[in-house]
Amino acid sequence: MSVHLSRRAMLHSLAGAGLIFLGATACSSSDPADDSDGSDAAGATDSPTAAASPAGRVFGAEWEKQARTFMAWPASEGVWGDQLAGVRQDIAGLAKAVAGYQPVVLFARPDQADAAQQAVGDNVEVVQLPVDDLWARDTCPVFVHDRGTLKGVDFNFNGWGNKQKEHGNDSALAAALLDKYKIPRIETPVVGEGGAFETDGQGTLLVTESSVVNDNRNPGMSRDDIEAELMKALGVTKVIWLAGVRGKDITDAHVDCLVRFVAPGVVLLDTPFPGAPADVWSQSSAQARQVLQSATDAQGRSLTIVDLPQPDPDKITGRGDAFVSSYINFYVANGAVFMPKFGDDAADAAAQKIIGDHFPGRDVVALKIDNIASGGGGIHCSTHDMPGTPAA
């Protein structure tokens, strides 16, 4: 039977699958963010440039040099149920693939560290820190350079608005990571996740309003309030707001499943498979396109929009209401880009070419991640880059 699979699951479907409401988790010296102004308007629009960010603070682009990749070993049967073994297999495969290009650190609970090490092999460093789930993009700190010093912003992970109840370890992960690696911690009143923020490395930030201007994370804070705090914490000078989708998936529609920078002034936009029925996700894509077409970045440039179509839902190998059939959730590493393959050979190849065209000189590595995708995320959601130069 043909079933159109949206990029994210309806919350009631996730609850029925036992993936969300049973459990999951994600934080040293403190460095408060500096002051800056907010944006205007209440709708999802392109905000005017606000006051300058703290001098010298930069939220770098993902394609810049990375010291290592952080990942997390899925720990809880309360979160994954009988899917835990399969998702661990996907995480191990992804960790080993990334480790072929740069150092990978995999966080694991102390009682699971040996099994995790056996699964990932000797090229991946397993570090014992308590975790609940695999979504390192959201639970690790967001890294910035502040006057040449690497620092980490702790966005106070709360289980995506307390939708996932088991998240006590993951809420503490950002601070624990920063303490272990002796990286100064930047505090912010904003609650959010790394997958909610996309940057060009030159002062522009893309955000969906649904994922941060939301009472499940930031009650009582207006969009202007949140924009001002993001500018302080991340050092960005321009925020482009997209509407997103509220209440239909656990993340409230993170931007990293919708639109990604591939160069300053150039974005890839997740678009539905041709002929797919309209739904809230296709409407979100259309709204994002409208905003991006009229937007300018922090440097005053108009944006070039390149479509990255989804695969045919009748040809993909993965299934489930939560399944994320979007190529946009790729991860850029040193010398490579890691993207999902879904079993629609023509769409997989087309996506690989589009991504490769925008990252010349990097290998484009396509991986089957059906178990990860069944949980409502992808490769980008499962990885978190730390800027810097890899150790010899």
UniProtKB/TrEMBL annotation:
Biased composition annotated in UniProt, kind: Low complexity: 39-55
One example of a Gene Ontology biological process annotation: putrescine biosynthetic process
Disordered: annotated segments: 31-55
Domain of life per record: Bacteria
InterPro entries: Peptidyl-Arg-deiminase_porph (IPR007466)
GO MF assignments: agmatine deiminase activity; protein-arginine deiminase activity
Pfam families hit by this protein: PAD_porph
Annotated protein name in UniProt: Agmatine deiminase
Species in which this protein is naturally found: Streptacidiphilus jiangxiensis
